[in-house]
TrEMBL record:
InterPro entries from the UniProt entry: FAD-bd (IPR002938), FAD/NAD-bd_sf (IPR036188), UbiH/COQ6 (IPR010971), UbiH/COQ6_monooxygenase (IPR051205)
Organism, scientific name: Marinobacter persicus
Cofactor(s) recorded in Swiss-Prot or TrEMBL: FAD
Pfam short name (any one): FAD_binding_3
Signal peptide: none
The FAD-binding domain, residue ranges: 7-329
Name of the protein described by the UniProt record: 2-octaprenyl-6-methoxyphenol hydroxylase
Keyword Flavoprotein attached: yes
KW Metal-binding (keyword) present: no
Length: 426
């Protein structure tokens, strides 16, 4: 069977942020590839709203400055930026201790250290951009299995209760770590439970956030407050990530909104004045999940299917985005060499290049949790000294800023802008 006899070239399981971004990047950089996305949520292009009305309870994602640069390369940032709240300052502190460090975008010659964007808005921007590409969709549908073939893979799909089969060169699993497809395909995930939960909600405060993101470590776990709302003027709304034990989570959820605000005030303090409102609360258990060998001939795991991090450093989607660009780069190189994009020489190089980034990011996030989770006095003093050192030592502060901004990792060799320009001119 030749390439032209295959149903498609690449099948992406999952059309969420990771899967849709990968599809768009391939359409920009490797436009000759036929891409099919299999998504469980039904899609109706004519249902995309002409105008976006932000919701108070919208879930959001923290985008590092490095992720903005990637979205610019893909021609997506201009649209996304319409509802992207900048993070111009970061304040890190340890509750009950004197140590603290501060980062300021202007000190690094940038407009912002990062941005907070509603997931739904980013998804709408991706869908609008994808409507102008040749990417095909199977939705609502889901991948139920895969069999390697001499030409690549045969992927089993269930759509509307009916079985369907697609043949292609490669399958990319981008449906997160909870669907079960990863395990069904035989990948072994290593999971470490933190014994904590993340409570996610939007909150309002008496004082403006002034585009400051707060990372507050407490004796019961870290909490983050990220500026949220209008990108044009600093407001009073922030996105909350609150780490809680099972018992504490149960107790918080049983409270009224007014009582939740009081409890939050006790843990966070008064840097933003009084907490005046808390929106719908969502929660999920925290765990560190990694797959040591996320590729094999004809199949690759990306995003949360390959690695899921503690949200303390806000690096999950940013790490995934860098990995997606590395995969796109290697697929571009494979096509240029006349090699199947599912060949292990292509996918193995993607794994090799991305591995160092995810190992360093996992270590950075995990070490923060373990370091600030130690109640011993000598450890607390060392933490305070470390935070002060980050605040006053230029070299240490630059290193920390690069981590926060997502600019300290490997830079792709491939010029995505050049390829995107070629693709748009065809």
């Amino acid at each position: 069977m030749t390439r032209n006899q295959l149903d498609t070239d690449l099948i992406i399981a999952g059309g969420g942020l990771a899967g849709a971004t990968l599809a768009l990047a391939l359409a920009r950089v490797v436009p000759e590839l036929r891409v099919t996305v299999v998504e469980s949520v039904p899609l109706a292009p004519d249902a995309l709203p002409d105008e976006y009305q932000p919701s108070y309870d919208a879930r959001s994602t923290a985008l590092a400055w490095g992720s903005r640069l990637i979205l610019e390369e893909l021609g997506l940032w201009q649209a996304v930026s319409e509802h992207a709240t900048p993070i111009q300052h970061i304040h890190v502190s340890d509750r009950g201790h004197f140590g603290a460090t501060r980062l300021h975008a202007q000190d690094h010659g940038q407009q912002a250290l990062g941005y907070v964007v509603d997931n739904r808005w980013m998804g709408l921007c991706l869908m609008r951009a994808l409507l102008d590409t040749r990417v095909q969709w199977q939705a609502p549908a889901q991948v139920t299995g895969m069999v390697p073939t001499e030409e690549g893979v045969r992927v089993d799909i269930r759509k509307g209760g009916e079985p369907l089969t697609l043949t292609g060169q490669c399958l990319v699993v981008a449906d997160g770590g909870r669907s079960g497809l990863r395990e069904k395909l035989g990948f072994q995930a290593r999971t470490e439970e933190y014994g904590q939960n993340a409570l996610i909600a939007n909150v309002s405060t008496a004082e403006s956030h002034r585009y400051v993101a707060y990372e507050r470590f407490t004796d019961t776990g870290p909490m983050a407050l990220l500026p949220h709302g209008s990108p044009r003027e600093p407001g009073n709304q922030s996105a909350l990530v609150w780490t809680l034990s099972d018992t504490a989570l149960h107790d918080i959820l049983s409270l009224s909104d007014e009582q939740k605000c009081r409890k939050l005030q006790e843990r966070f303090g008064s840097r933003l004045g009084r907490f005046t409102r808390i929106g719908d609360c969502y929660h999920y258990p925290l765990k560190l999940t990694t797959v040591n060998e996320p590729v094999r001939p004809g199949v690759a795991l990306v995003g949360n299917a390959a690695h899921a991090l503690h949200p303390v450093a806000g690096q999950g989607f940013n790490l995934a985005l860098r990995g997606l660009m590395t995969l796109v780069e290697q697929m571009r190189r494979g096509v240029d060499r006349g090699v199947s994009i599912g060949d292990l020489s292509v996918l193995g190089e993607y794994q090799r290049l991305h591995r160092k980034d995810w190992q360093q990011t996992v270590q950075f996030s995990d070490s923060l949790i373990r370091l600030f989770g130690q109640p011993l006095a000598p450890v607390a003093l060392a933490r305070d000294a470390g935070l002060i050192g980050l605040d006053v030592l230029p070299g240490a502060k630059r290193w920390f800023a690069r981590k926060a901004m997502g600019t300290g990792g490997r830079k792709p060799v491939l010029s995505i802008t050049g390829k995107a320009r070629e693709a748009r001119s065809e």
